[in-house]
Amino acid sequence: MINNYTAHQPVLFDEVISSIKDNLSDDYKMAFDFTFGGGGHSFGLLENFPTLNLISFDQDPEALENGWRNIAAKNLGERIKLLSGNFSQFDNVLRENQITSNPDVILMDLGVSSHHFDSPGRGFSFRFDAPLDMRMDFLKGQTAADIINSFSAEELKRIFIDFGEIYNSEALIERIMIKRQASPILTTFDLKELVYQTWAPKKGVKIDPCTQVFQALRMEVNQELKVIEEVIKKAARVIRPNGIIMAITFHSIEDRTVKNLFKELEEGETPFQIVTKKPIIPSEQEISNNKRSRSAKLRVIKRVSEKKKKNKYHQFSRKE
Question: Which domain holds residue 180?
């Protein structure tokens, strides 16, 4: 199962490299990759920028074991440190490892890795009958089964609306309540059966009715929006002047969150400038090669030397 990480395809890789080259001078020294995963982005950054050193983070024990082994095999231990921990707590992780560093580049790939979807035992995918888990760090925290079997109807409705944009979940929640009174909902197929009883799959419709349900539960289990908000605010405090923060998202809820947080940074006291007025999306060729990249979006914001004035007459504007 660990070896699956070696086949990882980093999404929007060429666009990430171009964003660095277009927005930074040649004196960059340090980058943070907040989501090591299979190491595609991390190893690619080191290959494309020979003077760059890298600190990467991951909370998945399998990703960490695979990553440490690959770093040793590639003899890259002098240039990259792979640290264990949720990237929302990267400042604490650095402190625990007695590392003081301010990066020129911060990259966060906020999607779930292909490894997670393709690992039957992790419970991320409704393609496999497996324990309903969905934890990024499978050693701690509540599972999706814990949530489905203990949360109230109102709490479940909130989750499905906020994280799945499902506005007609009442019938599904009623089935969940009835089912769990008889016996616990413990597997992905237990939940899948309830979803299909509520919304039968239709021919010609690309999106399976389970997709948004499983997404909503996964985001609740891993507190994904809270993590995004925490990490972007912390990233803004440590990025060097003229450095860039890049975020790759995979669905509208994540992208909207990143867009709004970047806008808040641009309007705040510290000088930031949004580089991507519209998100960068994969090329047709990349989508053809990697269908899971089709929903990816890249947004970039830069720490600048001074705030951009709204217009050239800004200093003469009349105050009410």
Answer: 137-221
